């Protein structure tokens, strides 16, 4: 199984960063536009057991992704696991810690690439490169959306 990790310091208290991520609509705000991501169905706020259905498009192919929140510890941890989607396995850990400058957010994604024909294109190397680009974009968007608030 492949793994990707990223850390980000956000100059806001944990409660504000955690609250921001608990709103599924904010996922769209920190996802690069090239993915054409939209929420199909989901609660207004994440909680343990919440299901979120997303639809995105990349390289002209539309994909539906359904994730379940399998761990939820306020101001500490959110884990979402793909239940339906292109990957054989996709588990996204969001971990929050107090940092002298605000909040240290660590994202860790464990994944298995798709099988079949799509797996020939979506290799581990390609997925990791896409994740690097996505998390670079996310860092910029978190700064714009959270750190610019007074």
Task: Explain briefly what this protein structure is.
With 150 residues, the protein is of the alpha+beta class. It is 29% helix and 43% strand. It is globular and about 45 Å long.
The largest sheet has its strands arranged as: 1-7-6-5-4-3-2
Biggest sheet features? 7 strands, antiparallel
Shape: globular
**Overall mean confidence score, pLDDT:** 94
Strand content: 35-45%
Give me the number of helical elements.
4
Distance between the termini: 41 Å
The percentage helix is 25-40%
Oligomer: single chain
Radius of gyration: 15 Å
Low-confidence stretches at least 5 residues in length (pLDDT < 50)? Answer: none
Overall strand count: 7
Helix and strand sequence: EHHEEEEEEHH
What structural category characterises the helix and strand content? alpha+beta
């Amino acid at each position: 199984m492949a793994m990707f990790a990223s850390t980000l310091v956000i100059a806001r208290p944990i409660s504000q960063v955690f609250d921001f991520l608990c709103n599924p609509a904010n996922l769209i705000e920190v996802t690069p536009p090239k993915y054409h991501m939209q929420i199909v169905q989901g609660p207004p706020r994440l909680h343990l057991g919440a299901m979120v259905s997303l639809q995105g498009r990349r390289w002209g192919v539309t994909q539906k992704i359904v994730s379940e929140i399998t761990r939820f510890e306020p101001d500490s941890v959110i884990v979402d696991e793909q239940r339906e989607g292109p990957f054989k396995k996709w588990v996204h850990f969001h971990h929050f810690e107090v940092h002298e400058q605000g909040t240290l957010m660590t994202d860790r994604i464990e994944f298995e690439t798709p099988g079949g024909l799509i797996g020939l294109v979506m290799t581990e190397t390609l997925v990791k490169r896409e994740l690097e680009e996505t998390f670079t974009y996310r860092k910029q968007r978190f700064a714009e959306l959270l750190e610019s608030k007074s």
